[in-house]
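_Full entry_
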Amino acid sequence: MKSVALIDYGSGNLRSAEKALVRAADGRANIVVTHDPEFVAAADAVVLPGVGAFAACMAALSARDGVIEAMETAVRQRGAPFLGICVGMQLMASRGHEFGVTAGLGWIPGDVRKIAPADPALKVPHMGWNNLDVVSDLPMFAGPKAGQPVYFTHSFAMFPEDEADVAAWVDHGGRFPAAVARGNMVGVQFHPEKSQSVGLGLLAGFLEWRP
């Protein structure tokens, strides 16, 4: 059975992400909440959740001895499928600009910056349901591509240096990336675990993905 390492570094959405992944797997994958470097390095897929500030999340992840190195082994060296959720997606970037500048994992070159809607009536944090402009052909995005909305709650977004790394866009007083994809790595700014059936469909698609 496929092993999926759901990285435990104290993220607030860890348990809801676990429940959604277990439901999406429907017995076809073993979802393991872990910060054991050996398990992570050997996992068939890796999921990094995240809520909160970029700097705090990066510090918490770095404090788990050997986990970042194990993620590098699994994802970057072995090519295991990777999914970053919300701040888990943002940590893939080169750096985050929240409470100063903090280095990220650097897996997808780019910056995490605060969103600034052109319409002052649109509030930040950006919270609620939005439709996406999906530009990726990955099957896991079939639901949003068909017009099914997904749930957001965030103030910062990831802006890749190369727009070819953007898998989907969202508009909240201006367009910004809602998802990224490069090789065996995918990240979503929205919360699939809070996006009901479309979110479960995305997670199921990720679990079946063979990049």
